Amino acid sequence: MADPQLIEAIDKxxxxxxxxxxxxxxxxxxxVQKGGIDYYLLFNEGGEDxxxxxxxxxxxxxxxxxxxxxxxAASAGNPVRLSRHALRVLAVKTSY
Length: 96
What we know:
There is one protein chain. By secondary structure, this protein is mostly beta strands. The protein has a single domain, classed as Immunoglobulin-like (Sandwich). Helices cover 10% and strands 49% of the residues. It contains one helix and eight strands; from the N terminus they run αββββββββ. The protein has one helix spanning 4-13, and strands at 18-21, 27-34, 37-44, 50-56, 61-66, 71-74, 80-82, 87-93. The strands form two sheets. A five-stranded antiparallel β-sheet has the order 2-3-8-5-6, with no helix packed on it. A hairpin with a 4-residue loop joins strand 5 and strand 6. The radius of gyration is 14 Å and the shape is globular. The model has no long low-confidence stretch (mean pLDDT 89).
């Protein structure tokens, strides 16, 4: 388990790239930049479904994509829903 004091000290030194509410230990995030677009790969490693609000450091409009279908999984401003072991890609671009 993470030491809350260590996390607090890190948060004072570094602005978080991703903020999640409510917090969860089951979400894994990878941030990749390609071709002027910020991609956040979101993976639910847990055995339960997640419903989250995300805030990311990248600025612009976003689309949540389902890579298994190629379609959009949610629109901006709505909670992100990830079923257990699901993968989604959050694409953030200055203009969509």
